[in-house]
Design a protein that fits this description.
One of its GO terms (biological process) is base-excision repair. By secondary structure, the protein is mainly α. It has one domain: Endonuclease III, domain 1 (Orthogonal Bundle). A two-stranded antiparallel sheet has the order 1-2. A hairpin with a 5-residue loop joins strand 1 and strand 2. The two termini are 24 Å apart. 35% of the residues are buried.
């Protein structure tokens, strides 16, 4: 990928991955990196980041409506009750990524999310790993793929019964929900979350 930001016809600077495809551009402009602090929102994004592992984010984003329908809006209470019939239904659903390991992890993680409510809940738990500083990249090769905090979060979530929550996947989650700001300096979205200064 090019290190340069691309200025669109609207005069806004975006990274190359968000400059072409309208779906990715809209996601970048309105959602990626904005704070998500509710249980269902964090559970959904944690689940989708796990499904994304080994695939492109564009693939997951295009399938997100089907994922939401298939997983009852990522309601942890509903997903936690899934049994073998639900697993078979999900494995037969061509609208989502049909990976048994990731489907099982989503059900496992719904149950672990419910258990975490006794300790303040998933959202507070995940946000407790917010670092003291965020990256300030001017090029893609300056953006880390994991951090000490994402490694610690991964270990803590695994201890709490979560699956498919490796440190790289958890760093992607941290980027997606605003815990860190990895927008390139000069992007129109840099510091737009209200969590981090420019």
């Amino acid at each position: 990928m090019s290190d340069a930001l691309i200025v669109g016809a609207d005069g806004l600077a975006r990274p190359s991955w968000a400059a072409g495809d309208p779906l990715l551009r809209d996601y970048y402009d309105t959602e990626w990196g904005m704070p998500v602090r509710d249980e269902r929102g964090v559970f959904e994004r944690l689940s989708l980041e796990a499904f994304q592992s080994g695939l492109s984010w564009a693939t997951i984003l295009r399938k997100r409506p089907a994922f939401r329908e298939a997983f009852d809006g990522f309601d942890p209470d509903l997903v936690s009750a899934y049994g073998d019939r639900d697993r078979q239904r999900l494995m037969a659903d061509a609208g989502i990524v049909r990976n048994r390991r990731k489907i099982d992890a989503t059900i496992t993680n719904a149950r672990a999310t419910i258990a975490l409510r006794e300790q303040g809940g998933l959202a507070d738990f995940v946000w407790s790993f917010q670092p003291a500083e965020t990256p300030r990249p001017t090029a893609y090769d300056q953006i880390p793929t994991q951090s000490a905090e994402s490694l610690a979060m991964s270990k803590a979530l695994k201890k709490a019964g979560f699956a498919h929550v490796g440190p790289t996947t958890m760093f992607a989650l941290m980027e997606a929900i605003g815990i860190v700001d990895t927008h390139l300096l000069g992007s129109h979205r840099r510091a737009s979350s209200g969590v981090w200064p420019a």
